[in-house]
Amino acid sequence: MSPYQGFPSGKVGLTRIPRPFFSDLLPEIDHLGELKVTLYTFWRLDRMEGDFRYLRRSDYLKDARFVSGMGKSLKEAEDNLADALERAVMRGVLLHATVTLDNGEEDYYFINSPKGRAAIEAMREGKWRPTNDQQATIKLDMERPNVFRLYEENIGPLTPLIADHLSDAEQTYSAGWLEEAIHIAVERNKRSWAYVAGILRGWQERGRNEQNRRDTEKDRRSYIEGKFADIIKH
Question: Percent helix, strand, coil in the chain (nearest 5)?
Fold first, then answer.
């Protein structure tokens, strides 16, 4: 097993976990599978939206990276997952409900929180029930490099001013756009934030297509001659 290379610099995504987990539950959990399932459930539900957030047993099994850590074979992983989920339910961390749908029975798991308990109660009273609709797919893939790390590795040192610009850009543009714009700047040997920002602004104003990519030099100049002309090196 190769050692982990360490967490990246700059801002990284965080997962919200209730403080009582660390004070009340972590000292009591003595089973690795249960710990993995519990942490994974917190991580994945934190990335969902909606009043009632849940995972089906099939959702765990569809995440190949997570499953690979639960057993050496698919059969072993399925057995270990079933055992880990049962332990988490018995401990009271997760709430479990079996729902009969058009295509058969499905197991649903909720965090034992006020909203999770409300969901179970609503199901019992017939006021709400899950459907066959697939929730947004979320998988335990390797995290994409954040924009701060991409900038440092491809453009140059991260100054406080540049960090502010990158933070603003993260709120405006998708991670895919930021990554591609930085790579285009590197390919053209235009390693500056001004050039990257010009690319992004061009895509935002006129759409992201090949013609607009050819206009990035014009965008770069209009950007660096504007309000950032005297503070950005280019």
Answer: 55, 10, 40
